[in-house]
Design goal:
The chain is of the alpha/beta class and 461 residues long. It has 4 domains: 3-124, 3-Layer(aba) Sandwich (Rossmann fold); 143-312, Rossmann fold, CATH 3.40.50; 315-386, Helicase, Ruva Protein, domain 3, CATH 1.10.8; 414-457, Arc Repressor Mutant, subunit A (Orthogonal Bundle), CATH 1.10.10. The chain is built from 18 helices and 16 strands. It has helices spanning 11-23, 34-43, 60-70, 87-93, 106-142, 148-161, 177-186, 205-213, 230-233, 249-261, 287-292, 298-304, 320-335, 345-353, 359-372, 414-432, 437-443, 448-457, and strands spanning 3-7, 27-31, 48-52, 75-80, 98-101, 167-170, 195-199, 214-215, 227-228, 238-242, 263-264, 273-274, 278-283, 307-310, 342-343, 378-379. It has a 5-stranded parallel sheet with strand order 2-1-3-4-5, sandwiched between helices. Helix 2 (34-43) runs parallel beside helix 3 (60-70) and helix 5 (106-142) runs antiparallel to helix 7 (177-186). The radius of gyration is 30 Å and the shape is elongated. The termini are far apart. Residues 387-404 have low confidence and may be disordered. Bound molecules: adenosine-5'-triphosphate (ATP) and magnesium ion.
């Protein structure tokens, strides 16, 4: 049943409508002036407001406009005098749900219109609930994994999605931190609002600041117009600050301020602007260690770690690795129109026996490469370390040694050797990304900052 406000300066009309609505089981309140109506609308979420237009002081059009502004979900039914020809159009333009002329059928018409409005409201709510439900399913279904740690992770996501707290997602490279962050957003009440993702490692400090907070015309050379920052674009929704460890200490102060005050200040502009944004940060570094080493501000660290979420490495997820391998097999078979339908039995063993230091991302790349080269219905998988003549150094933290490099009898200049490998991989990455440095950095799993640093070191441009 609905919650209805009736506003008419003729008390008899108020009473008539009140009794009729109450008989249908609705909750009704009545007022006899526009000003009272506006005050009630500020305080209560009505399903329907029925208002007369001609009233002394604050008229019904003002009530309509006020209601549209503060409570856009509420349907407003406007009652006009018989001889008002202008008002109906004006009312509909201003967002009225319906207009009704006063006359002998007034009661009947109002009841019909209110019933329609309540139906529409119910449909909208059901729709929103269904959408949210579907989005939840989708986003959690995208996170493949049935192992205990993954079940626990999904449960955590469901739980924290309902809150507005800041989250820090940590885990080794390629474990799915970005996917987890997105799932938190899509499971949250903010799911219909924007989700904005920023890689903090991809920008130098000043650029990152103007990306995040925007700038005003004239803030710096080249700022020829005002530009909104990503925090403003994410207003009402979620912002994902990836590679938060790559921010400078100066930037960290600014982020801390946003988290504390929930306000942003565009570069070059004095005006503070409130923002309602949920922050999810991610890192594959040990932030606590970085705090101890003076590379990350302790206060920001504590602000961010309100809710810590740890994404487990693939090697701790048991048979999930097979689920994931099959998932990627299907995905790439469809994408590349290949007939491959299953993993070869010996490949199953190979995949299960490996500890996947680069986690899901490397598994995905491995399967992609295997599918691309496969012409049978059984997929044979080569581990990244065996990747036919390619240089595939193990990822950080790997238990395995760099396969294929044999120590020569009279030793090796290790530093120079490593430097040669680094330089050669940097050059390959630049070639493969057509010189796009952020992309090349990604290929090497490096932050933009570290990548630039190495470019300088090896005098590459
Ligand atoms: N549980 C999972 N189910 C399906 N796909 C996954 C899963 N986890 C990761 N992926 C896929 O693996 C790839 C890497 O995931 P993602 O980019 O989220 O990792 P990450 O933790 O952010 O890595 P990095 O630290 O390197 O940025 C993506 O293509 C993602 O879709
Ligand atoms: Mg990532």
């Amino acid at each position: 049943m609905g919650y209805i406000l009736v506003c008419d300066d003729e008390r008899s009309i108020c009473t008539m409508l009140q009794i009729a609505f109450q008989n249908q089981g609705h909750r009704v309140e009545t007022v006899t002036g526009g000003e009272q109506a506006c005050r009630k609308i500020d305080a209560t979420l009505y399903d329907v407001v029925v208002t007369d237009v001609r009233m002394p002081h604050v008229n019904g059009m003002a009530v309509l406009q006020h209601s549209r502004r503060v409570s856009p979900e509420t349907a407003v039914i406007v009652i006009t005098a018989v001889d008002d020809t202008e008002v109906p159009i004006e009312a509909l333009n201003a967002g009225a749900f319906y207009y009704i002329r006063k006359g002998p059928k007034l009661l009947e018409d109002v009841l019909t219109a209110a019933a329609l409005a309540l139906d529409r409201g119910r449909l909208r709510q059901q729709n929103a609930a269904l959408k949210r439900d579907a989005a939840q399913h989708n986003s959690l279904d995208n996170l493949i994994g049935e192992s205990e740690p993954m079940r626990a992770l999904k449960q955590t996501i469901r739980t924290i999605a309902t809150t507005n707290s800041t989250v820090i997602v940590s885990g080794e490279s390629g474990t799915g931190k970005e996917l987890v962050s997105r799932a938190i957003h899509t499971c949250s009440p903010r799911s219909n609002e924007p989700y904005v993702s920023v890689n903090c490692g991809a920008f130098p400090e000043t650029l990152l600041e103007s990306e995040l907070f925007g700038y005003v015309k004239g803030a710096f050379t080249g700022a020829t117009s005002n530009k909104r920052g990503l925090f403003e674009l994410a207003n009402g929704g979620t912002i994902f600050l990836d590679e938060i460890s790559e921010t400078t200490l100066g930037m960290q102060v600014k982020l801390l301020r946003v988290l504390q005050e929930r306000c942003i200040r565009p570069v070059g502009g004095g005006q503070e602007m409130p923002v309602d944004v949920r922050v999810i940060a991610a890192t594959n570094k040990n932030l606590r260690q970085m705090v101890q080493d003076g590379l990350f501000r302790e206060d920001l660290y504590y602000r961010l770690s309100v809710i810590p979420v740890e994404v487990p490495p693939l090697r701790n997820r048991g048979d999930d690795v097979i689920l994931l391998a099959n998932h990627f097999l299907k995905k790439f078979a469809v994408q590349m129109s290949k007939d491959v339908v299953r993993l070869a039995p010996e490949s199953l063993q190979v995949i299960k026996g490996y500890d996947w230091p680069g986690n899901v991302r490397v598994l995905e790349n491995t399967i992609e490469r295997a599918v691309a080269m496969s012409y049978e219905d059984e997929l044979k998988v080569e581990l990244p370390e065996q990747g036919g003549g390619q240089i595939t150094p193990p990822a950080a933290g790997s238990a395995q040694g760099a396969v294929g490099v044999v120590l020569p009898p009279d030793g090796i200049d290790l530093e120079r050797y490593i430097a040669d490998v680094e330089k050669s991989l940097l050059q390959s990455a630049l070639r493969r990304s057509n010189g796009i440095q952020t992309r090349a950095a990604e290929l090497l799993h490096l932050s933009y900052r570290s990548f630039r640093h190495m470019m300088k070191k090896y005098d590459l441009s």
